[in-house]
């Protein structure tokens, strides 16, 4: 496999834009770092729009609903980003329950995670339980009411939360073990960590999901990147030709694998790694030099890489 091409010249930036019609953006580490917009990204996306390019945002971050993301995009200066362009994994989880598992509206769903999951479940007619219930902040005691399983719960969704505590782990475990482990166990994403504020690398949703997987000794259904089902849903809903679509992300085992396994960009490929988030150049070099050291080897290697997506507008204006 050819080593990834570094985009550093104006003509390479122009070629990239000519080659693809559709752009799928990861958010954390590509568009922003927490509340800070990554320089040049807004201008580059506005340039793509002016060229008639189409795009969508696909984030493994389950903490915010699509409506909350719209507010964030507006706050950061993006105009006209509608709900239909945003695919966070809280929405992917709720859609999976409805479209794939056919869990009927009106069913209760146990949640370990932040508000985004509860909001998206409600939008599809489900009744979230657990989640932000303040009783989950109580100190653990074995007679606590919430440790008794509600028999009306039909599925469990686990995602990132900053309120991880023993009550949440213990209550969620009761549901995962309930009736011989028969309730579907959905995990929003597999990310170990993410690039947070102040340059900190922070624990991500995958740590919470895998904690629950370990303690329950159960596998989970991963609805986030690199899930092929998520990609197919986006391509279908947005009517994107996959051979003309590029995935842009900062994480190789989620974003780049999503683009490569999904065969974006046709025979030439369709994955672009940005170094503005959690992956640094040394990580890319490590992967290229030791592909066997990572389980998924070549499917994690991007077609191209660039220091940040915002760098494109800088290259184009030179
Ligand atoms: O669990 C999380 O919150 C995610 O790991 C993280 O924020 C990744 O989001 P993405 O880079 O897919 O936007
Ligand atoms: Mg990211």
From TrEMBL:
Positions of Mg(2+) binding: 26, 28, 250
Cofactor(s) it depends on: Mg(2+)
Class of this enzyme: hydrolase
Residues annotated as catalytic: 26, 28
GO cellular component, one term: cytoplasm
SUPFAM superfamilies found in the cross-reference section: HAD-like
E.C. number(s) listed in UniProt: 3.1.3.41
Cofactor, free-text remark: Divalent metal ions. Mg(2+) is the most effective.
Signal peptide stretch: none
Reaction it catalyzes: 4-nitrophenyl phosphate + H2O = 4-nitrophenol + phosphate + H(+)
UniProt keyword terms in alphabetical order: Hydrolase, Magnesium, Metal-binding
InterPro entries with a match to the protein in the record: HAD-like_sf, HAD-SF_hydro_IIA, HAD_sf, PGP_euk
Recorded superkingdom: Eukaryota
Example GO BP: carbohydrate metabolic process
Any one GO molecular-function label of the UniProt entry: metal ion binding
UniProt name for this protein: 4-nitrophenylphosphatase
